[in-house]
Amino acid sequence: QTYQRPISTALNATGRAIVMTVPLASDGRVLGELLVRIEPGDNVQVSKTGLIDKLAGALGNAERERLRNIPAAGDFAALGSLKAAGFDFVFDAAQLVLRFQPAVEQRAVTELSMARGGAMPASASLLRPALFSSYLNVIAGVDHTWGGSGPDRSSPRLDLESVFRFWSIVIENDAVLEGSIDVNTCPIGARCVYGHSPGLKRRGSRLVHDLPDHAVRIQLGDVETFGAGFQRAPEILGVTVESSSRKLRPGDSIRPSGRSSFRLDRPSDVDVIVNGAFAQRLQLRPGSYNLSDLPLVSGGNQIELIITDDSGRRRSIDFTTFFDDQLLAPGRSEWSVSAGLASTFLDNERHYLDGEYFATGSLRRGLSDQVTAEANLQGDTRVVMGGAGAYAASPWGFYGLQGALSQSDLGFGAAARLDWDLVNYNGVIGAWSGVQEALRLGAEYRTPNYRVPGEFLIGANGIYFPQHLYWLRLSGTYSVPLGWSTVASLSARYQFSDDKLYAFTPNVIRGDRYGVDVTLSAPLAANVSGSLTFGYSNESYLGYFSNPSAQDEGELRVLARIHVRAGDSTRVTAAYDSLNRHSTAAAYSSHTSGIDRWETHVDVLHEGARDHVTGSAAVGYWGNRTEARVAQTAAAGNVGYGRFDPALNDQRTSARVGTSLAFADGQFAIGRPIRGNGFAIVHPHESIAGKDILVGANGSARARADGWGSAVVTDIPAYLATTLPVDVPDLPIGYSLGSGTFDIMAPYKAGYALQVGSDFTVSTFGTLLGTDGQPVALLTGMARLESKPEHAVAVFTNKAGRFAAEGMSPGRWIIEMATDDRPTRYVLDIPKGTDGLFKAGTLKPAGASRS
What we know:
By secondary structure, the protein is mainly β. The chain contains five helices and 54 strands.
């Protein structure tokens, strides 16, 4: 068979240079797209700038530098020059793909992280929060007391919480309008001496400014302080500056990584085994790897990497690493500094203590994978205290040593604490059974004149708890698995009383306190677990306020607990403590998740010492724009073991309804109270106005926009990459939502205004011809809306000059294609009202007639 014209096998048969965008692939993955130029004669040249950018994470530093030094004509390097320099690039003409296969020694060392709850990597298209946003949580309710010694009463209540954010400055306010009923009840075992009064009460105001790049937060106003070592952490009116990666960069791992390095010469599967349990399977390409952030437990950890390459050869790497939550990675630090006037809550209102100034600071820093050190300083108008400490992990256990010195009206004082944890080791029983045991020992010593700043705050809120002052405290715990999923624990502690400080601290329990216990814990059934404790102790504080001078004698103790998990959403717990003669029972159940969620819980407490029982029950509903809760509490006397003659008293019925008013970038919406660190208002574009929008995935909607207004997502975490999927059930045919998701990383208390839908919902296809009437083949270009030139859409043509473009809208578009001498321009008019697909037909360069 003969042909009138021979079929050309040339890659470029046009007689001119062709510039096109092609994918760059390596190890079966597409790393991105870059420009290539195919000269007549099929000489392929590649954009060197594009290569360096796309291979930044694939090549080591030295290899990237060699690639940068390869000669190039302008920005284009010849494919032959790249191969001659040892870079294995191949241009696949059939699929129009540039493929690269790096040698093992050319690859960058890859960091593999197995961080617990690791953060999702941030999207390259994160949306910016609103420049100004705010919200107001409003929770209204009523309380009604009845059945007591006094007359029945009803009292309203209104909680108000406001947040204003401008740029990176956040202002927070919290206030409550209370009626005549105090909603707070005195804690069990405490004495409350404050009186309740109704009215508008301010609970706190503060300004917060974050520097997330430096993991630093600055607070002004009613701020928190942070304690380390022997320090207290009261609230103050003043300033706090803290460095905390946990809060401002939660995706970072600040713990020792349990790092292991290994190299693969062939594609391999790597099974990671931690303490005998399978953790993860990794499918890896050839290269060098650092494996970090292993799921470690406190104490010694046995790590095994089982490597199986593509030929079936199997090998393993074993090592031991030691870990504790107190440790920081080398070079990582946490610190805080605070100063101001001490404050407290009295009758649910912020009060300031005149003349009681307080300052504190602390620093923790990782010195190595095994050692973390800390230092701290704190003082008030009476006491100055400074301290230091160190934490160390070793094959012989984990050590914690802390010390402090104080200067006060009593003179010079000192304190020291030593802890030793030997966890996950083979001891007396484990030596022959193979089980992992745990031993924890601790000792704390204080001189008679040792004082801690902030002691003046004891009882400042009108609530007094019994206290026990000691000069020496010893404690120890030993636990071991016994088989059949049963764990036995033996614990003991002894506190030597410091009688010399009774005159300086109120409500002190006199005499030494001690206790020893044996506990057995085990699953009793598939969904039932329990524990049983037998011991001897004098640690009960019952009856202290009625007889403060009582010297409690030791007595036998029985403590029993049971936990029942009835399905995925229902839990029941019960406990009995003979030492304090307390019995408790509680049940919790929830129905569905997301919006339209219901929760119920019931709690019962029996105080055997005074034959008194208290019961409460509540039902809560979390809707799209409101949350509601109704609770009932009742108390009865004359209820004891062998005695049941209940006398009801102090009954209370409470009802609460809450909502939020949110604003961001000109959008206003009503939603549930905002509980997270950020929020988002999701609203429809005018092209889909009136249609419902669901925010959420897997059938669990987090918010819904409907005829009542936009949706409010109320629980966005701060500084964590978050994806909000959206769905519109009844979209017009051909209407595209794009990816159907919003990618955000919300700063502290930030608000977002997220629009679903847009004007750019048209997909266009057609054919482009050149000035010679031939198809414009294998070229790239851009289409810009004439009225909004900042909106650009990429245009590609195939060998027949056919093109397709998405994300366009009605209006006049100018298309510019990257032809040789200068760009060729086309005009495309999309009629008003067009939605979905639009057939553009055949387009000729601007100035020529359209086909």
